[in-house]
């Protein structure tokens, strides 16, 4: 059994910053979809769940296609997978859909994309007009974010965005899906699940924050945050959660 996990699709000439490596170019994706439709034993999330919980047997070469985060470009994915009749699941950053929250890694990517030079805390200048340098900078910041406790993730990014030379565009180049998109996808049969509230690094969350990140459909005892109402959007029973970075 294999799960193929994607994040989104971009135009083949899209080279900007590290996101170009997070996404699959749309022409390659179309080819992969053609291949999967022809050769794969494609299973739905329901079948996968049944295999994990009830011992329902799947073919050894079964494949499930899944997307994480919930970028708006997944609407294009939906069109392609629908055409090939490939079932898929989508695990969204819930607060992005419900509240328009922009995940820290998207804020970082937008700023890096708009910046060519930044002055670091030691006074040195980091030049990043080339994509490879932008990726290197993004990687350095990610290491710091991942090392911080989860409640400090946004502060780490805020401090980087406040460095002299950083540009912080108001609009994002990588919008996320909205409620109406999710309703449309759910109505078209896409299995929608929880990819955490704000894509915090779960192993670095304390118990309270962990509950707010993953609680669905009920909040943990003592947690003030309301339940994550994904079920309200999709009109279906809640799906299993897909943890950020698989942890
Ligand atoms: Zn993710």
Question: Any idea of the CATH topology of the largest domain?
Answer: TIM Barrel
Structural class: alpha/beta
Q: Structurally, how many domains make up the residues?
A: 2
Q: Quickly name the level 1 CATH class of the largest domain.
A: Alpha Beta
Mean pLDDT: 84
User: How helix-rich are the residues, as a percent range?
Assistant: 40-55%
| CATH architecture field of the largest domain | Alpha-Beta Barrel
Shape: globular
What is the H/E order?
EEHEHEHEHEHHEEHHHEHH
The number of distinct β-strands equals 9
- End-to-end separation in angstroms reads 19 Å
Figure out the total of helices: 11
**Annotated CATH homologous superfamily of the largest domain:** Glycoside hydrolase/deacetylase
Strand content: 5-15%
Distinctive features:
247 residues; binds zinc ion; 14% strand; TIM Barrel; five-stranded parallel β-sheet; globular; two-stranded parallel sheet; 2 domains; 9 strands; alpha/beta
Condensed summary:
The protein is an alpha/beta fold and 247 residues long. Helix content is 42%, strand content 14%.
What can you tell me about this protein's structure?
It is built from 11 helices and 9 strands. The two termini are 19 Å apart. Helix 6 packs antiparallel against helix 7 and helix 6 (104-114) runs parallel beside helix 8. Strand 4 (41-42), helix 3 (45-54) and strand 5 (62-69) form a beta-alpha-beta unit. The chain is 42% helix and 14% strand. It has helices spanning 19-22, 26-39, 45-54, 74-83, 94-99, 104-114, 131-147, 153-161, 179-187, 207-214, 230-234; strands spanning 2-6, 9-10, 24-25, 41-42, 62-69, 88-92, 117-119, 125-127, 191-194. The longest helix is centred in the middle third of the chain and has 17 residues, at 131-147. The strands form 3 sheets. Strands 1, 4, 5, 6 and 9 form a 5-stranded parallel β-sheet that branches. A two-stranded parallel sheet has the order 2-3. The chain has a two-stranded antiparallel ribbon with strand order 7-8. It has 2 domains: 2-100 and 176-246, Alpha-Beta Barrel (TIM Barrel); 104-161, no CATH class. The protein binds zinc ion. The site of zinc ion has 5 residues, from strand 5.
């Amino acid at each position: 059994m294999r799960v193929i996990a994607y994040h989104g699709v971009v135009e083949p000439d899209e080279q900007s910053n590290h996101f170009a490596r997070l996404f699959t170019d749309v022409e390659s994706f179309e080819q992969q979809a053609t291949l999967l439709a022809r050769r794969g034993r494609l299973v739905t999330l329901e079948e996968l769940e049944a295999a994990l919980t009830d011992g329902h047997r799947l073919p050894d070469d079964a494949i499930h296609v899944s997307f994480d985060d919930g970028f708006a470009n997944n609407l294009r994915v939906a069109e392609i997978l629908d055409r090939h009749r490939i079932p898929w699941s989508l695990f969204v950053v819930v607060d992005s859909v419900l509240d328009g929250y922009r995940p820290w890694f998207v804020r970082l990517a937008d700023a890096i994309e708009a910046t060519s030079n930044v002055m670091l805390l030691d006074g040195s200048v980091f030049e990043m007009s080339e994509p490879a340098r932008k990726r290197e900078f993004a990687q350095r910041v990610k290491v710091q974010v991942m090392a911080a406790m989860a409640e400090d993730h946004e502060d780490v990014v805020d401090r980087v965005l406040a460095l002299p030379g950083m540009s912080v565009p108001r609009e994002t180049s990588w919008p996320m899906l909205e409620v109406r998109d999710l309703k449309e996808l759910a109505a078209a049969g896409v299995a929608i699940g929880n990819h955490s509230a704000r894509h915090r690094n779960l192993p670095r969350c304390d118990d309270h924050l962990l509950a707010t990140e993953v609680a669905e459909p009920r909040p943990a005892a003592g947690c003030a945050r309301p339940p994550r109402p994904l079920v309200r959007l999709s009109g279906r029973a809640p799906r299993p959660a897909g943890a950020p970075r698989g942890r």
